Automatic annotation (TrEMBL):
Keywords: Methyltransferase, Transferase. This is Methyltransferase type 11. Residues 42-139 form the Methyltransferase type domain. InterPro entries: Methyltransf_11. The keyword Transferase applies. PANTHER family: METHYLTRANSFERASE.
């Protein structure tokens, strides 16, 4: 079922706006998500892979970042445009299914995806299954408690920080923290560590 909240792939060029690197500093995402000796990371809902590539740029040569999306157009665009650097691997995924074994993934990020998940529970359960103990999920999404709505999804499509925290806790993420950045506050960062 296609949700009205799902990003329209025809608008995918908007994702490649360099301004977004200021709103979502890639080094900060990497600092938050990376774990000592981690080698396998997932970007779920990677879109065009624009941010995936920038974030993965902070990873060492032994790291593999799998850029997942449910939208075939996005995955073929990533395959066409991303450098074959042996770090980022685009892959099509089925909704709410991660084709990785239990406790095999060292970190996961979701950027501008959470508000599209209707509901988020099934994907969060999969994330918990594949994440290695002590590793992190980082969620970055549009601020709901904001009057500024010139960009991004309508306010009624967004999810408040308190709702995200509640949903993460009921999915079993024990240590949920909101991170305040010195970047544009229309985004919120919500890493959750088990
Ligand atoms: C707004 S775009 C963000 C893309 C990328 N994270 C970025 O910030 O540049 C959201 C992406 O998530 C994908 N998506 C939507 N629902 C998804 C789901 N349930 N699982 C995986 N990807 C999904 C969409 O196809 C789209 O490419």
């Amino acid at each position: 079922m296609t949700s009205a909240k799902k990003f329209d792939p025809a608008k995918r060029k908007k994702l490649n706006n360099p301004e977004r690197l200021r709103w979502i500093p890639p080094h900060l995402v990497w600092e938050l998500v990376s774990s000592a000796d981690g080698t396998l990371y997932l970007d779920i809902g990677a879109g065009t892979g624009y941010l995936t590539r920038e974030i993965a740029g902070y990873a060492g040569p032994d790291v593999k970042v799998v850029a997942l999306d449910i939208e075939p157009i996005m995955v073929s665009e990533m395959k066409k445009t991303l450098p074959k650097d042996g770090i980022v691997y685009p892959e099509l995924m089925d909704r709410d299914e991660l084709s990785f074994t239990d406790s095999s993934v060292d970190g996961i990020w979701l950027i501008a995806l959470y508000h599209e998940l209707t509901p988020p529970g099934p994907l969060l359960a999969e994330i918990r299954r594949v994440l290695r103990s002590g590793c992190k999920l980082v969620i970055i999404d549009w601020e709901k408690d904001s009057k500024a709505c010139e960009q991004g999804p309508p306010l009624d499509h967004r999810v408040s920080t308190s709702t995200v925290i509640r949903q993460l806790k009921s999915a079993g993420f024990l240590d949920v923290k909101e991170v305040e950045g010195d970047f544009n506050t229309i985004f919120q960062l919500l890493p959750a560590a088990e």
